[in-house]
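Lay summary. Proteins are chains of building blocks that fold into shapes, and those shapes determine what they do. In this project we predict the shape from the chain. Here is one chain we studied, written as its sequence of building blocks.
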Amino acid sequence: MPDSAPGPGGPIPPYPPAPWAFRGHLWVALLPVRGRLPVPPDLRPLICASLLAVGLVRYREGTLVYDELAMGPLVRRGRRAGLLIDRIWVDDAASVRGGREVWGLPKQLASFTWTDRSVHVTDHEGPVASLAFRPGRLRLPAFPMPLPGFSGPAGRRLFVPGRLVGSPRLEKVAVTSWSERLPPLERTTARFSLAVRPFRMTVPGPVRC
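And here is the predicted shape, written in a compact code that computers can read:
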């Protein structure tokens, strides 16, 4: 385990080595944006370059306990496909350091304010986004699902073959506030959205691709 390093508010807690294992709640939404999202030249859009994938996670038990908001385009490289995580916020300093040093993720610290059916995320620059949820009735039995992602810059691209087991259900996700720092949205309701709660997740170390 790496030694802790000093930070602006004191020593940063050490992070555990990969793999990380969790239990918690997950929401995924595909939001239409104006224009096309930038995709690095070593990757190709998977579905459409005008859809932003947004993942909101509450890691309630496991390696670390924290909240996370991640977003980016869905892309492929050869036979591999997943979310290119180009923006990601968490509320735990050890997760920031581990995410950057193990998986090459551009994690930033933020605060998450929750109600029963909404969350508001704020970082050091101000509000990031607010999302609202409306649970649906359809729920499937638990089954294993891949949860793949890409990280790192072109030339040092990493692939993370995450795995998830849970009971997906259709839930409507809507944006109630959205920072100007983020890609501009075509509309504030998701084209497709679902929740997996509860889930069991394993995030292994990345592989070069």
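What the prediction tells us: The radius of gyration is 16 Å.
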